[in-house]
Design brief:
Elements: E1 2-5, E2 11-13, E3 18-20, E4 31-33, E5 42-47, E6 54-55, E7 60-61, E8 64-65, H1 66-73, H2 76-85, H3 94-99, H4 102-114, H5 118-131, H6 133-142
Antiparallel strand pairs: 1-2, 1-5, 3-4, 5-6, 7-8
Helix pairs in contact: 2-5
């Protein structure tokens, strides 16, 4: 377990915290403070497996921080592959359903998607990943 001092920004292992018995007075519980500056505002942190940044554990997705997830989500071809994993059911015009097979519908939609400006494609990729960043991170680990 690691902590980051919210005052000086230093990161240190839990066993390196400085303990002040009874909080330096009669409060009845020990205080843990930063071994560098003595401040008592400490946040538990974990390190991103990709970039090495220290973040709140709730901000990690299978070991990746949100910035790294977003960077992965900007890879349009990769998110297209993820889309195959994260398929959804949709309502479709009955005539089109009878006319085209699912693979033909996928092909038509892929062509329409490819015609969108790259910035719009990236936005839609980020939106898809944003729906479930944990699932995307798990898929990245499997891939």
């Amino acid at each position: 377990m690691y902590f980051m001092c919210e005052e000086c920004g230093e990161v240190f292992a839990a066993e390196d915290r400085k303990v002040i018995p009874n909080g330096g007075g009669d409060i009845g519980e020990d205080w843990c403070v930063c071994p560098y500056c003595g401040h008592d505002s400490l946040a538990e942190v974990e390190q991103c497996d990709d970039c090495g940044r220290w973040v709140d554990p709730s901000e990690l997705y299978c070991g990746k921080c949100r910035d790294c997830i977003d960077t992965e989500a900007e890879d349009i071809e990769q998110v297209k592959q993820y889309g195959d994993h994260a398929k959804v059911e949709v309502e479709i015009n009955a005539l089109y359903y009878k006319t085209f097979s699912p693979s033909e519908i996928d092909e038509l939609l892929a062509k329409a998607f490819a015609e969108l400006p790259k910035e719009k494609q990236k936005k839609y990729c980020l939106d898809l990943v944003d729906d479930d960043p944990y699932d995307f991170a798990e898929w990245l680990q499997e891939d």
